[in-house]
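[Discussion] Sanity-checking designs against the backbone

I'm trying to build intuition for which residues belong where. Below is a structure token string of 109 positions. I'd appreciate it if someone posts a full sequence so I can compare it with mine line by line.
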């Protein structure tokens, strides 16, 4: 578990940078909360039912986050880690509004 003040997101140029750890082939798709990676860095853990084949898990991740955060799918871009469980996403749009939605999402977990 990461320190209580460690957050997997931060404002960035053009929106918000979000660190994600994806769990493919889950029983159901859902945001599971904040976890720490091997280096102790926080990441938002997201479970998706899709398998990690031909980008299906990435597409499911983007669709779930778009629906959960009230964004368009086109506003979410994978900046690094497209073939990894650990990803860096850029959420484009109004950074203060996105940060507020992420804060309430993480607080509810």
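Best answer:
Here's mine. Compare freely.
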């Amino acid at each position: 578990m990461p320190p209580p003040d460690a957050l997997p997101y931060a404002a960035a140029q053009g929106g918000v940078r979000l660190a994600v750890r994806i769990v493919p082939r889950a029983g159901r798709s859902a945001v599971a909360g904040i976890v720490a990676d091997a280096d102790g860095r926080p990441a938002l853990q997201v479970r998706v039912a899709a398998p990690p084949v031909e980008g299906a898990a990435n597409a499911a991740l983007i669709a779930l986050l778009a629906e959960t955060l009230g964004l368009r799918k086109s506003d979410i871009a994978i900046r690094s880690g497209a073939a990894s469980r650990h990803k860096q996403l850029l959420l484009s749009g109004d950074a203060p509004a996105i940060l507020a939605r992420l804060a309430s999402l993480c607080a509810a977990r």
